């Protein structure tokens, strides 16, 4: 399976932005803007916007994701949300292991694995984020680091489960900084991710895997990034908060 046959997924990561009222407005603008998309369109929104997002997007081509999920089914975990709670609302995707969670909320490769497996067990599709810091890139360990992040994130997952997994390569130095990886840098690491998945699950599984790039992707640079053979989509932060910009990226995925 090559790029043409893989599912391109453009996912917005709204982060801690938009009240439910503001979310409703943005979704109203998004629905007509992306209705002809030839790729999967996902919006990952704060927990408090999920009900609004699921209700508003019913009958449209927009899918809804959460920005995190706990790995236990229920219990004494004040402030946390379980996978079953998300599924019950009609949520389909969940971002796991975003670098902001790793950096500010002590997320580790092991908890990324636990969250991803809990998400899969409940029927959610995890978008698993991996990526290096600027120091790590300058030290020349990007590929080794990303390979390790992927291996630990997927530890214990079956080939069947892998079909519902997306991996997002998000260099930390490019997130929210306006500094984008070059299309060549994005391709190099996305290809390395596909390679390690191939080593673990075989060539066919690797070829079927959706690998996204994320890090200051915007209306101007999306087409070039998405034209690369191993870049199947994008995880978009800032530019997903503007319906017109997000729609341009969705269009670029269709062309790419
Ligand atoms: C992100 O939050 O995953 C992201 C890539 O953010 P931005 O597009 O703003 O860099």
Care to describe what's here?
This protein is 45% helix and 15% strand. The protein is built from twelve helices and eight strands. The chain has helices at 20-33, 50-57, 83-89, 99-104, 109-122, 134-138, 142-154, 159-162, 183-201, 203-208, 222-226, 243-255; strands at residues 9-13, 40-44, 62-66, 93-96, 125-130, 166-169, 210-214, 233-236. It has an eight-stranded parallel β-barrel, surrounded by five helices. Helix 1 (20-33) runs parallel beside helix 12. It starts with 8 loop residues before the first strand and ends with a helix. The model has no long low-confidence stretch (mean pLDDT 96). The structure holds phosphoenolpyruvate. Phosphoenolpyruvate binds at residues 13, 15, 98, 170, 175-176, 214-217, 235-239. Phosphoenolpyruvate is lined by residues 13, 15, 98, 170, 175-176, 214-217, 235-239.
Query: Ions, cofactors, ligands: which are bound?
Result: phosphoenolpyruvate
**Alpha-beta content class:** alpha/beta
Biggest β-sheet strands, sense, barrel: 8 strands, parallel, barrel
What is the strand tally?
A: 8
